Every structure is written in C-alpha cells, then in structure tokens.
Amino acid sequence: MATIDIHDLSGAKVGTLDLADEIFGAVNEDLLWEAVKHYRAGQHQGTHATKARWQVSGSGKKLWKQKGTGRARIGSIRSPLWRHGGTVHGPQPRSYDYAFPRKKYTASGEQDATFGNGGTLTIDLGGLNQAAESVAVQADGKLIVVNTLDLKQPKTKQFRAALDALKVDATVLVVEAATQKNPNLELSARNIEGLELVRGNDVHPYHLLRYDRVIFSQPAIEKLQLTLKNSISKRQHKEVKEKEKSAKKATRMPRRRTRHEKAAEVA
After folding, report:
1. Averaged pLDDT for residues 21-39
2. pTM of the model
3. Three-state DSSP class for 226?
C-alpha cells in the first residue's frame, strides 16, 4: 500500500496517509478520455436557436401574381430564399448530454454517492478512480495533502504564501471536504489566478486532469477514498486481497519442520 506525506499550510510534514491499492493503481487512459468527454458534453449549454419560416416576422401575403411579371415566383417574404427570411433545418436548443455506460463508472457501475451533509450526487466514480490513479502516478508533487485548510483570516496574501510554501507555482485545484464550512478559504482563494476551489462531492476527472497541481485537505481525500472504495466491484476487491495475501506469503519465514518430518528424511 502506497503512502503520501501530509503537510500543514507552512509546508512542514506532519504525518503520512495510506493510499488504497484499489484506487491508486494502473491508469486506464481510454476510460479517462470518455469520462472527460461525457462531462464536457453535459456542460454544453445548447442554447443556440434559429428562426424557422413560421417564426420570422413579416407578411404572409403573396407579393405578386404567379405568372406574367417576368420575375421569379414567390409566395411569401418570409421564404428561406430571401434575405431576412427563415432558416431551414437550423440549430435548435437541445441537450448535449448522453447516457454513460453503467459499467464504466468505477469500471463497474454508476454510483449515487451520499455524503455527510445528507446530499446525494451522481458522479463518475470510474473516471474519478482512474483520474486519482493518474494524479498519483504522475510527477512527484502533483498530488498534495494538507491536514487542514482552515485560515484565521480571509487574506489572499496569506493563502498565496501558503501555496508558495507548498511549492505550488502553476495552476492548482483545491479540494475541501463537503461538510467543512470554510468562508475564509473561499474569500482568500477566489482572487488567485489559475486556482479553482471545489467541494469533495463536486470533484470530477475533468478537474483533476485540468490542473497541474491538486491540493486535498485530509478529510476530503479520506472521504473521497472511502467513497471510491465502496464503489469498487466485489471482483476487484477480491483481486486486491489476493495480491496482498501473495505478498505476505512471499515475505513470510519458511515453516519449521516437525520431528516426524526430520525422522522421515533421516530414514
């Protein structure tokens, strides 16, 4: 089981955290791509609209008689052939969201994650699982865990100094526990360029992959890790347990021979 250091806002190490093998393992890049694509499709507003012939303003009277004028026949000034006329088969408001295969959530199934505040949110746990793995296996320092994100005062300068102490010199995602009410953090972080603050129940693979650094508070990553572990299939749990057993057997001392076995060898 891998471990990661826990720091405080001054950058000092204050402990370690065990990372579950079920979550921080191999990365499925195809599943990550599909999860991000699904998320961005849901973010598409789809408010585009054009006016059809019946929606355009203008008279419906026939402009001139059908024959005898030498001009092209026309039935209405709202014809799509004319300037300011209607649009044929133009885009209309619609949702770009689509159903995501259930087995691709957790690489097993979609879950409704219930959090400590009583709220329920359907999140892409499979893609989130893979994104967490991707963050963990990438360059050192991408994933940072702090014991708390509590600030005494709503000061952007102080929070910027804390980020510098944690060696954050690029874009960063800050994840706070959903149950933690931290107005000082929200006020301190909102004016820092390249920083986004989200709650633990709003984290998506898109967020984890978009930023160069990810800072989790200890309660947030513990709750997220527990939610992801509960969403993993029984088959995956069994595979992890078998790996742990085989690792223990490899490190176990050889069994001592009994008196009967020694006598049989001598005979």
Report:
1. 78
2. 0.67
3. helix
